[in-house]
Design a protein that fits this description.
By secondary structure, the protein is mostly helical. The protein has one domain. Helix content is 57%, strand content 0%.
């Protein structure tokens, strides 16, 4: 069963949202907010995990643990 969620936003923000909906090809503001919610709740790497991975990569780079790739396909 569908339910309606109402939020109050400043006019300038509504204008920006509607422009984003149009520019990004969403069919409606609702579709855009569903997309944003999905993106927010999916299993996305945290900032802490990203920083940890960067530090590890830098360490491995300094230690010379590199791979020479012949093409982008070698990354897969």
């Amino acid at each position: 069963m569908r339910q309606v969620l109402s939020i109050s936003l400043p006019g300038s923000m509504i204008k920006n949202i509607k422009q984003r909906v149009k520019n990004e090809g969403f069919n409606s503001v609702s579709e855009y907010f569903k997309y944003l919610f999905k993106m927010d709740t999916e299993d996305v790497i945290s900032e802490e995990e990203l920083l940890k991975n960067i530090k590890q990569a830098r360490k491995e780079y300094k230690e010379g643990k590199l791979k020479t790739l012949k093409s982008i396909k070698d990354l897969m």
